Amino acid sequence: MSDPILRLEGIHTDIAQYHILHGVDLEVPRGAVTMLLGRNGVGKTTTLRTVIGHWQARAGRILFDGAEITGAKTPDRARMGIGYVPEDMGIFSDLTVEENMTLAAATGPLDPARRDRIFEAFPPLRTFWRSPAGTLSGGQKQMLTIARAMAEERRLYLIDEPTKGLAPAIVSTMAGALRDLKRQGASILLVEQNFAVAKALGDYAAVMDDGRIVWAGEMQELATDAGLQERLMGLSMEAQ
Q1: With b meaning 16 or more CB within 10 Å and e meaning fewer, what string describes 8-30?
Q2: Which of 32-46, 52-66, 193-207, 222-236 bottoms out in mean pLDDT, i.e. has the lowest?
Q3: What pLDDT digit, counting tens, does each position of 70-103 carry?
Q4: Cα–Cα dist 156/46, whole Å
């Protein structure tokens, strides 16, 4: 990987008195989907939040498109072209879908062409454009969460468990939207527990355990090697 869009070098992150990341080394290839996998509680969400700047790394370096951003504030990282989709959605329930999208387009009005691409990816958002976001179903709220990150051009998307708890039809819609993002040239770092989704979407994978990356390589290699899955994650994920 000669020119990754994101590189983490020896990242250590603490939350209160807890040492969560223990020297994370990770490279995210440009224009591809990289799956960040592992059991619950091993540091995947903390890794994403450290990249976007919600938590500051205590040691190590973060390089985005060749520039060090380790000490940068979250708004500055967003302006550089990093979008973050949290697991807890983070939408404004009392505002309409349109108002949520308007707030997400921080540099100016939402571009109509971009809005139409979002409608193509997530048709329910067109239907409920003027409705309060709090009235949406769980799957529709997750669509809005991802759409908010798409409100402006992003070079890197950090997405935390977008399909968790969703019906298969909604999962399929999500997967299609993420494929479209990749076709448009975006790079994606995606935390996902659904191995079928990871296998279908991922170009590369990195597996975490105890706050470290313990394996990294092509998703196809992990997806076709049940023994490797069991060794890294304690179970054959082909059964998932």
Answers
A1: bbebbbeeeeeebbeebebbbbb
A2: 222-236
A3: 999 999 999 999 999 988 777 899 999 999 999 9
A4: 17
